[in-house]
Design goal:
With about 350 residues, the chain is α/β, with parallel strands linked by helices. It has two domains: about 90 residues, Aspartate Aminotransferase, domain 1; about 230 residues, Aspartate Aminotransferase, domain 2 (3-Layer(aba) Sandwich), CATH 3.40.640. Helices cover about 45% and strands about 15% of the residues. The protein contains 14 helices and 13 strands. Bound molecules: pyridoxal-5'-phosphate.
Length: about 350
């Protein structure tokens, strides 16, 4: 059996999604004439209660565009030290926007209003970079799929209002947060200036993200996306996949969450496991009793057909997704229970 738990980005389009892609009505989106892209943008904007949205080839480009539109070179943004924008976007914050990051050691990738307040440089102290933006991630990736309490986001919003800071959400997996918590999309739309969402993670579309914001923000974003080389032509084939994913794949994220939680329960009782971090959604992060054996453990499971990754610092990660079947799940649980390390 072949099982891929390296990421929820490995999913392939479902048969229904492929049908939707085949029959998509398309046009040239650089001329804003692709009806499927336009429909998707309107649908996502409305879902989150934002004025407008823009389709992107990647979540990275959507985040980088948001950072660019909120900041000027030399300024500083505030984020958690685990954040994707800092760790996994190739240094784009400094390369694309000329901005530095003031980092907080939060709780599994989540930061709070008090911590944000301590990181704001006084605007009249011209020696330090001007703080202009706060970026949150929900759910957190390196933080192990943790999601925010809305009350904390409200408190951060009010700090941002007080200090005139923009607030951006890296909501690559906001879909998982909403399924796990029951929080509604409009709550997030009301709290953030801009939100990026991924269709290519747990939702299972092959490619695509969106950036949501006011008409003014999205007008700026179109120009920035152009500069980044992200204008796509008949992107409607991809937009239709994304739209199908929202309608048909969103609910079943709860299955991914159940499997992740069962993986945690199973891993936790093994002698060779020191610690499994809390599992709130579809990401399981754990540590071996003897972390020197990380490579051996990964290789042993790989030989048995099970792939997952190390995130460094002795953190091993398994991510569940819609192509991880119940049959595969039972196989993995069995292997974990019988493995000798
Ligand atoms: C996957 C991901 C992104 C976007 O990544 P792309 O591979 O560029 O689509 C952004 N933020 C987080 C937290 C992610 O997990």
């Amino acid at each position: 059996m072949k099982v891929n738990l390296i990421s929820d980005t490995t999913t392939l389009p479902s048969p229904g999604m492929l049908d939707a892609m085949h029959t998509a009505k398309v046009g040239d989106d650089v001329f804003r004439e692709d009806p499927s892209v336009n429909a998707l943008e309107e649908k996502v904007a409305r879902l989150f209660g934002k004025e407008n949205a823009l389709f992107f080839p990647s979540g990275t480009m959507a985040n980088q565009t948001a950072i660019k539109l909120h900041t000027q070179p030399g300024e500083q943004l505030i984020c958690d030290h685990y954040s994707h924008i800092f760790n996994y976007e190739g240094g784009g914050v400094s390369f694309n926007s000329g901005v530095s990051c003031n980092m907080i050691e939060g709780d599994r990738g989540r930061i709070n209003a008090k911590q944000v307040e301590t990181k704001i440089n006084p605007p009249d102290f011209y020696h330090s970079p001007l703080s202009t933006l706060v970026c949150l991630e929900n759910t957190t990736n390196k933080g192990g799929g943790a999601y925010y309490d809305v009350l904390e986001i409200e408190a951060i919003r009010s700090v941002c209002n007080q200090h005139n800071l923009g607030l951006h959400l890296d909501g690559a997996r906001i879909w998982n947060a909403m399924i796990a918590s029951g929080q509604k999309p409009k709550i997030f739309g009301g709290l953030f200036d801009t939100i990026s969402v991924c269709f290519s993670k747990g939702l299972g579309a092959p490619v695509g993200s969106a950036l949501l914001g006011s008409n003014e923000a999205i007008d700026k974003a179109i120009r920035i996306r152009k500069v980044f080389g992200g204008g796509m032509r008949q992107a409607g084939f991809l937009a239709e996949a994304a739209s199908y994913a929202i309608d048909n794949h969103w609910e079943s994220l709860s299955e991914d969450h159940r499997k992740a939680s069962e993986l945690k329960d199973c891993l936790e009782t093994q002698d060779y496991i020191e610690k499994v971090e809390p599992v709130d959604t579809n990401i399981v992060i754990f540590k071996l009793t003897n972390s020197l054996k990380d490579t051996e453990f990964i290789a042993k499971l790989e030989a048995l057909g099970i792939r997952f990754i190390s995130m460094g610092q002795s953190k091993l990660r398994m991510v569940t997704h819609r192509d991880y079947s119940q049959l595969q799940h039972e196989y993995v649980l069995e292997i974990i229970k019988t493995l000798k390390l």
